[in-house]
Amino acid sequence: MKTLAEVFCDWEAVIGLEVHTELTTLNSKVFCPCKVEFGAPPNSQVCPICLGIPGTLPVLNRAAIESTVLAGLATNCTIEKQSMFYRKHYFYPDMTKNLQITQGPVAFCMRGGLTLEVLGASAAERTHLEGTQPVDQSNVNGASPADGYVTRIGITRIHLEEDAGKLVHIGGESGRISGADYSLVDYNRCGMGLIELVTEPDLRTPEEARLFLQKLRLIYLTLGISDCSMEQGSLRCDGNISLRRRGTSTFGTKTELKNMNSFKNLHDGLAFEICRQAELLESGGTVVQETRHWEPSKNRTIGMRSKETVADYYLFPDPDLAPNDLSDAFINEMRSRLPELPDARIARYVTTLQLSLADARILAGDIELARFFDRALEAAPQTASTQELAKPLANMLINEVSAYLNAETLSLEQTKLKPEYLLELTQLVLSEEISSKQGKEVLAQVFIQGVSPAELVEELGIKQVSNVEEIGAVAQRILDANPAKVAEYQAGKTGLLGFFVGQAMKATDGRANPKLINETFVNLLSKGTESHG
Amino acid sequence: MSLSPAEYTGFSVLDILTGLDCRDFTARDVAKAAIATIESLEAEHVGAFISLTPEMALKAAGNVDGTCVSGASPFEAGLLAGVPIGYKDNMNLLGSRTTCASRMMENYESMVNATCVSKTLAAGALPMGKTNLDEFAFGSSTETSAFKTTHNPWDLTRVPGGSSGGSAAAVASGMLTVALGSDTGGSIRQPASFCGVVGFKPTYGVVSRYGVVAFGSSLDQVGPFGRSVADVALTTDAMCGHDVRDSTSQNIDPTYYKSVLAGQREGIKGMRVGVVSEYLNAPGVTAEVTAAFKEALQRVEDLGAHIVELELPHAKAALSAYYVIGPCEAFSNLSRFDSIRYGYCVPDATTMTEQYERSRAEGFGPEVIRRILLGTYLLSSGVYDTYYYPAQQVRTLITQDYHSAFEQVDVLLTPTSPRTAFAVGEVSDPTTMYLSDIFTIPINIAGNGGLSLPIGLGLDSGMPVGLQIIGPQFKDSNIMRVAAALEATYDIPRLAPLVQELSNTPGGDAR
User: Is the Cα torsion angle A401, A403, A407, A409 positive or negative in sign?
Assistant: First the structure.
């Protein structure tokens, strides 16, 4: 099989994504009052309504509309005031009513889009840049054209619907329904609010697909509408892929790829499917329109069921639910509730806080780090220059804190570090009261003990000696005690500076400000040269 | 203190409340008399019930008596204190089965109380049982029930109408004082007309649909049967109003009985009453129905109301629209009966698809299958635009027709049904059966309220004839007022005479 780069010489991939996101932060399911906690015992979060007991009726949870509209506003969609819920019919045991309540031709959110900045190694996957813009100051703060390109991915719609239950197949091969001895159903998930986002077929590389999903996830996390866990299935992504010869514009036959439950799987699954289709087409075969299953362990996609005929879902407006009629006041209220979105945050970090683009993207790219960073800065006294603090704070988070979290596989929330502690620590290092090496040691203690770094420094007695007179006195004592070495130094053996500094550190239990002690020795020793010379 | 069936069957709701208040009898006496009446009439003659719940009735009666013993008025126990009630068997009542008269649901134990059930129980009503219906409420004669044939108490060889035939027959025979039904195209009004009792379908949204197994969600409405307009009004007052579990239910004040009193005291002088003369030329309207209807109009005029001739240009399309919208919603609502979680399940299926297909084919009767197939076809992609969409447009036009009609009149009168009750087995052709609802269906399409009032016996058949009184949306008070005033001019028995004789025979008293 050809590599992706080889395939892209002759072929253009056309990719569209369908992203399902569970509204896990709602207090209840979308049409009943059931709770929505992950990991509850099977069939413990169900009621007559989500079980579809004859005679029960759905009643819309208003907060679900709020989450959907927020998602739409954050992805530049038009919010449709008039829309209806529809019933989509199909028989499957994970459905309690054998119909799914979803939205019809008009969804709450229509015609949006996101801009993708494809930089560095990600940009290299795309060999033909038609339809994109080069990166420059106007679209990415602090970037230069060589860094990559910018492309816009259209969003067709975002609609609200209810989720189905979960089937577990017992016996048989690989936990799939065919060949299973029996199947169990857990309806806890049945009726949970789900938003489905459909993109236009605007994506051209697996990297773009991955970046799009990462950006979307970050937006949803920023909005707080879902925990977006691909592992737990609250964020699920299917891809539609087709190929066409470079320079042509008609669409080829597409396949739908499922089971891409991580960013890596999304990328690798799409990349494999692109190569598979290319090989098929180049050997004179045709692509069959079907749903395929990505098997990461075996590095292959396998066909699930043929989609040659479009399934008939007998869609019609749900008569149990009144048509949706959103007011301008409601939409404006939602708009006013929009938090600072990731792109705006990056721009603020670069422009206002003077962080490098790379640092800004790292911080803003992790919602937990970004929120922690913002809170730490907010805790700074009004008189302090935020710019001065921002850079060392960012460094501390990106380097020290991240390294610790990675090593311990913890999230920030699971440690006892607080934004104000990190601020305090940064200030201690900045004012040279402790060295950056000591800073790391203190941080390691704060993570575990959750105490103020200033108090800890006091308690440990490790406060750096930065007093000029004190340092001067120590230095003079050492020079006086080592006249031979002084003479050697002054004769040109300047490497002896390290010896003097080492002695001073020894004399102060390592608390001497290394920068200050260095300067002091250089001064004292040069004075001597002058006087003797 | 005790009550004989003969005494009990003559009671109105107010008779029971007054009797309890004067300590003439207890709610347990009423319950026992109702049980005795049912014992003497049900099994051999009427066949109105699918299941009986005498223990529940006696327990409820005990609760009412408990309230009264403490010196309180029965009204404190509720508007329906000590009143025997029956629920159509598509209404969930905890502790009973809800079968929808279908093999599919033969052993289905209710998991919730329907709101209309819990509200009437909270009002002190005594639940006597679940009444027979056409399977899943699809029909106009109660003959499509999978379990039994219900007989019209006025003539046991005839049908009681449908689909709420069991409720209508149980009230007409005196086994129940009031009963609930559901009305999707006439399923309360037509059997009320056939059985000579009062049946009322409130405006869509007045009574919550929660817990009533859905047929056509945008058409279904719960309503009461009684032997007087007052009984029907009091029962409506006990169960109307907004329900958080049904987003199509509305905030309604319980002032139905108040409107009845207004009609009785102040009459209807000066009210404007609309009539569509064209209706009497509709297919199948019999001479005896026309005669009774004309006589009713004369009485309305005699009471000082003005008759206004009207046209409803789109009403003739109502039946077509109904037989598109109804089956589509029914197909969808009945999808959940798949044998997986509850309901009839073939024991020997080897694949999931086979289990679905055979369980549904064997569990549903022919009329249900007919409507599901019709709905499936009508909602298929490509077909939807040809039928469902235009049907909704027609619906809008019909609704507008009624809106403009009610700018000119306060109520509209039609016969309830073109003919009186037919013999069991007489009508086997579905489309002929469908025609018995031509006057009631447009009202479900438009969403207005409608009541069937007995206006005497047909000159040819000797069977009851009903007058349909239709009101503007959410102004059911107009209906109550006209019905109460007109009712007072008739002196006709509401209890079927045949059954009255049977219940008076010795041994019918189970003291």
Answer: positive
Q: Order across the sheet with B306-309: list the strands.
A: B49-52, B126-131, B84-88, B178-183, B221-226, B198-201, B450-457, B464-470, B411-415, B272-275, B306-309
List of chain B residues whose C-beta atoms are within 8 Å of the C-beta of residue A98: 335-336, 338
Contact (CB<8Å) A91/B111: no
A524 and A419 within one domain: no
Distance CA B8, CA B83 (A): 10
A14 shares its domain with A162: yes
B/e letters for B123-133, b = 16+ CB within 10 Å, e = fewer, are bbbbbbbbbbb
Shared-domain flag, residues A449 and A479: no
pLDDT digits (tens, 9 = 90+) for A510-527: 777 778 888 888 888 887
Query: Who among B114, B245, B335 is closest to A99 (CB)?
Result: B335
> Chain B closest CA to A81's CA: distance in Å?
19
Domain ranges, residue A494:
468-532
pTM beyond 0.80: the answer is yes
Residue B368 belongs to a domain: no
How many other CB atoms are found less than 10 A from the CB of residue B55?
A: 10
ipTM associated with this complex: 0.94
Q: Mean pLDDT for chain A?
A: 90
Please check whether residue B109 touches A, CB under 8 A.
no
**Number of structural domains found in chain A:** 3
pLDDT tops 70 at residue B500:
no
- Residue among B100, B112, B376 whose CB faces A314 most closely: B376
Give per-residue pLDDT as tens, A147-206.
889 999 999 999 999 999 999 888 876 666 677 888 899 999 999 999 999 999 999 999
Q: Decide if B362 is inside a domain.
A: no
Q: CA separation (Å) from B157 to A194, B45, B154?
A: 56, 10, 9
| Residue B356 to residue A48, Cβ atoms within 8 A | no
Contacts of B417 (CB under 8 A, 6+ apart): B161, B186, B189, B190, B193, B194, B289, B436, B437, B439, B440, B466
Nearest to B245 among A59, A97, A99 (CB): A59
Most confident of A118-132, A465-479, B146-160: B146-160
Question: Can you read off the two tokens belonging to residue A230?
Answer: 């691909």
A25 and A164 in a single domain? The answer is yes
Contacts of B329 in chain A (CB under 8 A): 319
**pLDDT, average across residues A39-63:** 96
**B340 touches A at CB < 8 Å:** yes
Beta strands in B64-125 (DSSP E): 84-88
**pLDDT category, A142, cuts 50, 70, 90?**
low
Query: Is A328 within a domain?
Result: no
Name which of B93, B117, B97, B96 is nearest B108 in CA terms: B97
A56 and B91 within 8 Å at the Cβ level: the answer is no
Query: Which tens digits make up the pLDDT trace of B298-307?
Result: 999 999 999 9
Per the document, the length of chain B is 511
Residue A324 in domain: no
What is the β-pairing status of strands B126-131 and B84-88? parallel
Tell me whether residue A180 is in a domain.
yes
CATH number reported for the structural domain that contains residue B160 in this entry: 3.90.1300.10
**CA–CA separation, B328 and B379 (whole Å):** 7
Which of the following is catalytic: B12, B32, B40, B88? B88
Angle of the A497-507 helix axis to the A514-532 helix axis, nearest 10: 130
Which structural domain range is residue B183 located in?
5-316+393-504
A127 and A238 inside one domain: yes
Q: Which of B40, B141, B163, B164 is catalytic?
A: B163
User: Hey, are the CB atoms on B380 and A53 less than 8 Å from each other?
Assistant: no
Alpha-carbon distances, residue B418 vs B285, B317, B432, B463 (angstroms): 4, 17, 11, 13
Residue A490: the pLDDT is 86
The answer as to whether A61 is a domain residue is: yes
Measured between beta carbons, the chain A residues lying within 8 angstroms of B381 are 310, 312
